[in-house]
Amino acid sequence: MRVRSLRARLLAAAGVSILLALTLAGFGLVTLFERHVERRVDRELATYLHQLVGRVELDGTGRIHITRELMDVRFDEPLSGLYWQVQDDERPTLLRSRSLWDETIALPRDRLSLGEVHRHRLPGPAGQTLLVRERQVVLEPDGRGRRLRVAVALDRGEVETARDAFAADMLPYLLVLAAALMTGTWLQVRVGLSPLEQLRKGVLAIRGGHTRQLQGRYPLEVTPLVDGINELLEARDRSVERARAWTADLAHGLKTPLAALGADAQRLRDAGHGRMADDLDQLSETMRRRVDRELIRARLRSAGPAGSGRSDVVRAVEGVARTLQRTPRGAELQWLMGLPREVPVAMDREDLMELVGNLLDNAVKWAHDSVRVRVEAGPAVRVRIGDDGPGVPREHLERLGDRGLRLDEQTQGHGLGLAIARDIVTAYGADMAFSRADLGGLEVYLTLPRG
Asked: How high is the mean pLDDT of the chain?
C-alpha cells in the first residue's frame, strides 16, 4: 500500500537514510577503533620483545637464561593472556613465561632474518587467539653462533573486549545523534512543504470566494504550479462570463417570439376566441418558465466549482422582499422578517438572488395574508421561508425534494420555481427541505454553506 502523504514519504526516506548512514558510521568507527587498539598492542608487544631480547643471555655453562624478569605482572599470572617464549631449532621451548603454565606457542617454521620481526595470529592456550610478534637472536659463546627465536604474545580477546566496550559506549551517542537528525529532518520537511500548505490555504480562499486568484510569493519550484492555477482560474472566469453573456443573449432572443405569442393571444381574445387565447397565454408562460429554468441550469454548469463566490443572504432576502412588496400582490401581505445584521454564504450573488427570488415568489403567490422569513447564522446558514396559504398535502412533502421530480406537474401550485431552486441548491452542495409551516402553509428550509 502506497503512502499518500508526501510528508510521511520524506520522513520515512530520511529515517531509512539516517539509519543506514549511522549504521555504516558505527561499523566504520568500531573498525577504526579496533585497528587503533591493534596498533597500540603491536607497539606494546614490540616494547616487550625488545626488552626480552636484551635480557636473554648465556651463562658460563652454556645455559640460556633471562637476566631480569619483565615487569608486567601478567607474565606471572597463569593464562593471563600475555606471554613470552624463547626457543631454538633443537628444542621448541627453552624458556617461557609462567603465564603459559604448561602450554607452548606453536610458532610457524618460517625463515627469519636477523633484526626482522614477524607478526602472526596463532591459537593459544585455553582457546585464545594470540597476536604474536617474534624475532631471531644469535648468541655467540666461545665463537659459536646459536640462533634463538624470541616471541611475545597477547590474547586478541582483549582487543575484542575493548572494541565491544567502545561500541556499547558509542551506541547511546549514535541514538542521540539519530534523534537530533530526525528532528532536524522534520523541521526541514516542514519548512520545505510550507509553500504547499500556503497553496492549499490559497485554494480554500478561492473556493470560499475570499479571493479570485492565488496571492503571495512562492519558491521558484512552486511558482510554475501557481501560475498554471491562476491561468486556469482566469480561463474559467472568461468561460463563465461567456456563458452568462450567451444565456443573456438567448433570453433576449426569446423575448420577441414570446411577446409575439402574447400579442397573438390578445388578438384572439379580441376576436372572441377567449378559450384559445387563454391556452396560448398558458403555453407562453410555460415556455418562459421552462426557458428560465434551462438558462439557470446552463449558467450553474458553467459557473465552476460550488463555493466559488461569496454573498450576503440577508441583503438578498431584503432586496427580493422590497421588490415583491411593490407588486400589487406583495403589498397586500404582512411580511414577518427575522433577519440578523449580515450573514455571508458561499454562493454567487446571482444564484443566491435567483434562489431566494423563486422561493419568496412562490410564498407570495400562495399566501393568504402573511409571509415569514427567518435567517439563522451558525456553522451553516439556515433560511426558513413560510406562508399561510393552502400548503401541500403531507403525502407530497417528501416528494417535493426528490431529484428529477417534475413538481409543476405532480403538485399544483408549487411548480418550476421550486424546481429551479432545487437545481441551485444541488449545484452548491446545499440542502432544501419542506414541511408544514406554523402559519398553515408550506415552509421551506434552506441549509447553505457559510461564506
From this structure: 83
Estimate to the nearest angstrom the gap between the alpha carbon of 87 and the chain centroid. 74
Whether the per-residue pLDDT at 347 is higher than 90: the answer is no
- pTM beyond cutoff 0.70: no
pLDDT band at 129 (very low <50, low <70, confident <90, very high): very high
Among residues 98, 90, 154, the alpha carbon closest in space to that of 124 is found at 154
Q: In this predicted model, which residue has the larger pLDDT, 308 or 371?
A: 371
pLDDT band at 40 (very low <50, low <70, confident <90, very high): very high
Q: Are strands 334-338 and 370-376 parallel, antiparallel or unpaired?
A: parallel
Interval 393-429: pLDDT, tens: 777 777 665 544 444 444 344 456 777 888 888 888 8
Q: How far apart are CA 299 and CA 293, in angstroms?
A: 10
> What's the CATH superfamily of 311-449?
Histidine kinase-like ATPase, C-terminal domain (3.30.565.10)
